[in-house]
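Issue: ligand-bound run for adenosine-5'-diphosphate - logging full I/O for the record.

Environment: standard queue, default settings, no custom constraints.

Inputs:
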Amino acid sequence: MKQEFRELLQQRGRKEHPRVLLAAAECAPLSKTGGLADVVGTLPKALKKLGIDARVITPYHRCIKEKYASLVQHMFYFYVQLGWRREYVGIEKLELDGITVYLVDNESFFGDKIYRGGYPEGEQYCFFCRAVLDAMPNLGFDPDVVHCNDWHTAMLPLLAHTQYPGQLQDRAKYLLTIHNIAFQGKFGFDFVQDMLGVDGRYYTPDCMELNGCADFLKAGCVFADRINTVSPSYASEIRTPYYGEGLEGILNARHEVLTGIINGIDRDFFNPQTDPALPACFDRGQLKGKAICKASLQEQMGLERRPDVPMFAMVTRMTEQKGFDLVACILDDMMCREDMQFMLLGSGDERFEKFMAAAEHRYPGKLCAFIGYRESLSHLVYAGSDFFLMPSRFEPCGLSQMIAMRYGSIPIVRETGGLRDTVIPYNRFKSEGNGFSFANFDAWEMRDAMRFAMECYQNKETMQELISRAMQADFGFDHSAEDYARHYIWML
Ligand code: ADP
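Outputs:
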């Protein structure tokens, strides 16, 4: 055990590390729709290296059943009351890469989509929270800390402290991680009262009420022992009205227990030296393979095969959050005036998909818009491109810019959230930086940053320097795991 942890534990009169139960709606590789799944999947493994027994509890979604049923072991079952219904809860167990995962089974809630949207999604996760709390005494694992993630599990501390007084659920400490504050789980209070039996006295502006709704994430912010979000900058930003989505008041009131812990990426999975999705491998000392990747990408995507032209890329959800309106604003200006290529891999809002598909016809050989989700193509885009554009309106952490840097694609980002914490802007006088950035959510500022990047592209030495520094940055998960470990111990 690290000396620092030993001392921290000693201060709290403990010899061993805390036991942790991570509760989340999704967990990679079992179920995944976004970055949350990656964190929940990777964190317990990194914690295990530190000697922490962290287990996961997650719904037994249909997609998990289809792939892993033969490895799953039934533990026990019981019934919970949910409104007027009595619902079956099966608790199954799966050992995955040395991590214990408890799966909450009920076909009627988890038999199709991970997120059903609207009230059906509210029902799914009210059921899940109730099932987790009622299952806890029988898991054979008494957690010191329950680690909740996003609104889907944010009701756990309120329910534990108000409905299970003096019991094991009440004695545990609760950490709430906010992965994206834009999603809060807002429902009519009647619904919440009916589903979970929450007392009317908690439906107040200083507790879970927000703009006439019962807000699950707000309830979590009020009742959790500690709150964290996925980057230090985002942790400060969400205390302001622009980013706080109505929760800035409660977050300011609780700022002493609010911190930011940056996520990491799986450095083995995203590794240009060994990646099987690439036609040639490379590292920062030997970039020949990167040129081969660029040529291959150009050929596969119908772009002109030119090694000397700067290629800008995006791999992204096509939404307003990701700054697509900025791209739409300056794309024609850039494509007409500059000698450059643009490669997009993404899907999302129909209006952005249509805009990009039309642009592909206007700039044949110069611009490619691949609409869809393709994991292996994304690796080639990261490896084959020179610059990676991420002009987000807000970005809790962002993994794409870290992956891009790992593959030597220089990020051009808006200075917000995790982008600000991971990308150091290039400074030609001090010879420092691993990317380019701009401050305001403004298309012309973004264009200036892209132009500066193109200017640097003309100088081989500068590019070499930038690529080397970008590829050197350490975005592994081990630092995040140590930070989480500290947080768990602080809560004991
Ligand atoms: P967010 O979770 O907000 O969408 P992140 O940058 O944190 O953004 O993570 C996005 C992840 O999803 C990255 O690993 C990125 O490579 C991947 N991704 C996004 N869109 C696509 C796509 N169309 N095809 C393949 N991978 C994608």
